[in-house]
């Protein structure tokens, strides 16, 4: 495979590494692009200067939402190098999302080699402050111009990168979450398990309302009975009730999170079996009333692990613990980030070192 590299002649000013970075504000100097056509399949990947895309206003992605994306991170490791965290798992999920949206699958080996080359070129953009990383956003969109509804015969795959710090403005203190019982995010048989913009479009109104009421995100309930817990805006959800750790199962309407999988594997290695089962919001509320709801936390690439300090459901607040975050959540956060930054041994083989070519 050859990767065409065209370096920028006008590098941007990098953010000050001494100041905290907010999430997703900066983008780096370059981007990775690769095109697909129905006749030819995937073309060669190229790394080109970051810049505007040129799209026909009739491009199918703009009208019918044929698009998927993913999000993973590159870290500056303790040994001075750079590493990607579980890139194969994220690529597998991107291809799973692509299949659901009737889009072509990416060639995993070629794509990851190109991503490594891209990250190698952007090494200087990987922040070194604690809890910061270079967030990678692989995206695929339908580019064929066509006003009628159909699957596109042309797609653009691109990867952009953004140096990021902590996800929530609150930092790592616990977040307040509103249980959403009016709107739903995804129905059985729908797009819920795919990382696709449509799911986020469905969530924005509820999310903004929750924010204006003082909550960081919403907790979604199932679309049929408004009763079974699904997930939080961009995180999967875990409960610790009377010593048992519970998370909703992957039944097709929630996103199969890589961080969710890390939590399950890590706890299994410590002899804790996570129960993947349906959990009724009423079970959560009555556990709270019985003093058995010990912890609630979310898992996602951006925030890693995020403690929930309060649930709001049907006009009532349910504070959890002392509201500052749970002990299991902070242990998992330390363990996962310990591996990501190379502070701890990579005992699960989750890190892929980025080879140095530049
Ligand atoms: C990305 C995402 C998650 C978390 O998945 P990770 O792989 O852990 O980042 C959870 N829910 C939704 C809706 C998502 O889009």
Report on this model:
With 358 residues, this protein is an alpha+beta fold. The chain folds into two domains: 4-165, Aminotransferase class 4, branched-chain amino acid transferase, N-terminal domain (D-amino Acid Aminotransferase, Chain A, domain 1), CATH 3.30.470; 175-340, D-amino Acid Aminotransferase, Chain A, domain 2 (Alpha-Beta Barrel), CATH 3.20.10.10. The chain has helices spanning 60-64, 87-100, 108-121, 197-212, 258-269, 281-289, 327-340, and strands at 4-5, 30-37, 41-42, 46-49, 67-69, 72-76, 82-85, 133-142, 154-164, 175-180, 217-221, 229-232, 236-241, 244-247, 275-276, 293-300, 304-313, 316-319, 351-353. Bound molecules: pyridoxal-5'-phosphate. Pyridoxal-5'-phosphate binds next to helix 5 and strand 16.
Topology:
Elements: E1 4-5, E2 30-37, E3 41-42, E4 46-49, H1 60-64, E5 67-69, E6 72-76, E7 82-85, H2 87-100, H3 108-121, E8 133-142, E9 154-164, E10 175-180, H4 197-212, E11 217-221, E12 229-232, E13 236-241, E14 244-247, H5 258-269, E15 275-276, H6 281-289, E16 293-300, E17 304-313, E18 316-319, H7 327-340, E19 351-353
The structure holds pyridoxal-5'-phosphate.
């Amino acid at each position: 495979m050859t990767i065409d590299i065209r370096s920028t002649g006008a590098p941007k000013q990098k953010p000050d590494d001494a100041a905290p970075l907010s999430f997703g504000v900066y983008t780096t100097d370059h981007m990775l692009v690769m095109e697909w056509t129905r006749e030819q399949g995937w073309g060669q990947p190229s790394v080109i200067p970051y810049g505007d895309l040129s799209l026909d206003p009739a491009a199918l992605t703009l009208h019918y939402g044929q698009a998927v994306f993913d999000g993973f991170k590159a870290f500056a490791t303790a040994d001075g190098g750079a590493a990607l965290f579980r890139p194969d798992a994220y690529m597998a999920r991107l291809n799973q999302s692509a299949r659901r949206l009737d889009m072509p699958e990416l060639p995993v080996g070629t794509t990851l080699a190109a991503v490594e080359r891209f990250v190698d070129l952007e090494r200087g953009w990987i922040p070194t402050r604690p809890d910061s990383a270079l967030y990678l956003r692989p995206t695929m969109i339908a580019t064929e111009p066509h006003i009628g509804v159909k699957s596109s015969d042309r797609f653009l795959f691109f990867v952009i990168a953004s140096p990021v710090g902590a996800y929530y403005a609150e930092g790592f203190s616990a977040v307040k979450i509103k249980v959403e019982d009016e709107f739903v995010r995804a129905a059985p048989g729908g797009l819920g398990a795919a990382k696709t913009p449509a799911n986020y479009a469905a969530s924005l109104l509820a999310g903004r309302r929750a924010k204006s009421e003082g909550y960081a995100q919403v907790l979604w309930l199932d679309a049929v009975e408004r009763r079974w817990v699904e997930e939080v805006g961009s995180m999967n959800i875990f409960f610790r009730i009377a010593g048992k750790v519970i998370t909703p199962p992957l039944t097709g309407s929630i996103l199969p999170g890589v961080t969710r999988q890390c939590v399950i594997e890590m706890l299994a290695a410590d002899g804790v079996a996570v129960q993947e089962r349906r959990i009724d919001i009423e079970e959560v509320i009555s556990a709270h009333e019985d003093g058995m709801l010990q912890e609630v936390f979310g898992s996602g690439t951006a925030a890693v692990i995020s403690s929930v300090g309060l649930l709001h459901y049907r006009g009532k607040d349910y504070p959890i613990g002392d509201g500052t975050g749970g002990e299991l959540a902070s242990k998992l956060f330390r363990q996962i980030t310990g591996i990501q930054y190379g502070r701890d041994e990579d005992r699960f083989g989750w890190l892929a070192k980025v080879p140095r070519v530049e």
